[in-house]
Input
Amino acid sequence: MDVLFSQLFAGLSLGSVLLLAALGLALTFGQMGVINMAHGEFMMAGAYTAFVVQGVVGSAGVSLLVSLPLGFLVGGLLGLLLEATLIHRMYKRPLDTLLVTWGVALVLQQVARDVFGAPNVDVRSPSWLSGAIDLFGIGIPKTRVFILALAVVAVVALAVVLKATPLGRRIRAVVQNRDLAEASGVSTRATDRLTFFIGSGLAGIAGVALTLLGSVGPTLGTSYIVDAFLVVVAGGIGQIKGTVIAAFALGLLQATFEYSTTASVAKVLVFVAIVAFLQVRPQGLVSVRTRSLA
Amino acid sequence: MSALDSLYRSSRARVIIGFAVAAVLLFGVAPATMSTFRLGLLGKFLCLAMVAVGIGLAWGRGGMLTLGQGVFFGLGAYMMAMHLKLADAAQVEGSGGVPDFMLLYGSGVVPGWWEPFRSPVVTVLAILVVPAGVAALLGFAVFTRRVRGAYFAILSQALAAAFAILLIGQQATTGGTNGLNGFRSFFGYDLADPVNKRMLFFIAAGALLVMVAIARQLMVSRFGELLVATRDQEDRVRFLGYDPAKIKVVAYAVAALMASVGGALFVPIVGIVSPADVGVVPSIGFLIGVAIGGRATLLGPVLGSIAVSWAQTSLSEQFPSGWIYAQGALFILVVAFLPGGLAELFTRWRRSRRTPVPDDGTATGDGGDPGDGPGPDESADITGPAYSGRTS
Output
């Protein structure tokens, strides 16, 4: 029973990390069909933001609370800059966007290496997050619980923005039918920019959260980006629901396979599972129904 | 002069002349003028260029952005490396035919899936068949369900990530992060001997020429036309009664085969293969040369790939971090602003020279050899109708 719970929690915890990383991706991919390979580097930027803030503030608790909004801002502004300079020229060429943003990712990684040095740096966790909560007879690290809660808050906040604000209405309109939205007076240009800002900002928050789990290095983003993309592919685009389910499903799957085999074999098995799943639902778990041929 | 001119204009003659020039350069000029070290370096570039030929076919002609060619490159490389390790171990007294690293890290027993690679024939066959088979299997699973575009790109990338992680995880049987290295002989030939090194270079050069010839035949064939049609208007191809999935699977499998052979020859020439050669980053790295040279052309990927490898070697010797900035900048500039690659510039320049009076379309009536590089109309296809077919 203990084993079951601890595996369940390991899966949920991994799922929450994946969710934080994939949420922003799902937003930008779903809205604009743009694959942003630099998303992982925006996470890295968020993580280094936390490192810098801690250097200035000192107190680990205060710096975490300051870093979260600041990480959002840093990630968001980077995303805005990328959208305004490169991506908006390339909406007709989604595959090429992938390669261009990969180039951006390479440059950002090297910038981080030159500014902060190649070795990893550490961000201290606040004292109120050290230790573990005892639940069903197993100890659960408080940092993991915090990240799970953060992921839930991020999802709820994003859902509220999408469902209940004028901006959210515009975003959903553009996702469903860009031309019709534009014809109805929605400024797709402004909507795109704001979506990119929010999506990239979420990456920044994810980066800050990752500092609680390990040290921060220039390649922090690359280790999460592939899994995050798999979540988006399996979850389907256009709705948060699919991303949430896919993130936790992949997290649980990975944890289960890891328990019965090894971490590296588990990765391969998860990949096979996703390809098999796409046989059943090629558009992912949840997809917006359209009359298009795709 | 006019006879020479008409000879130049005949596309078949031009191809033969092209191959002859390449053969003279690779088999005559290069070995005569370069040191053994430089020749080995060029041999390595040729192996990477083989991967590029395949990518040009799958991505440039077929529109399948494959971010996982490192997997097929790695499969070929590792199978060759396994054979070389086993063959070396068989020569060492007292090792019992067990490769050195297995005695160090592993149980000292050769695992069962290594055993077939003791045979050179099985190894060569496996290099030709296994990666193409894996690609066909994955392609069949994915393309028949009409998973395409970005989804396919992401899946192929995930495959590369999973493959590299798997290799790193199995330290005892794959060498882990160190990979496989320290080969002494290649099918019985001593690898330290400069003559044999030269022979390896000739094998690589010959293999590359054969692959370019295969790619050209595929491009000018009906298959090649269907492939381009599938890239630009997949639904229309389906409505005409063809199966786009089959067309794409063939192109993808051929690309995998080329990557595999490139990997297999890379191992004896370079002397090492490790997960760092096959993961996500090197897999995408293969693409930059293809993009620079001109993804949809025959020679663009080859020349672009060799140029990028050369630039990487000479730049990273002097400025280690400079190369990464340069690579990032190349991806951004070429893909965003010059999607046809340098071939596009070349074609524009040649057209402007041939027809001083600017006219649209009439200059394209000179045979329309598909291996000719993308004309203005064709390169527009890469950027325009290829994706604008989406109606939602």
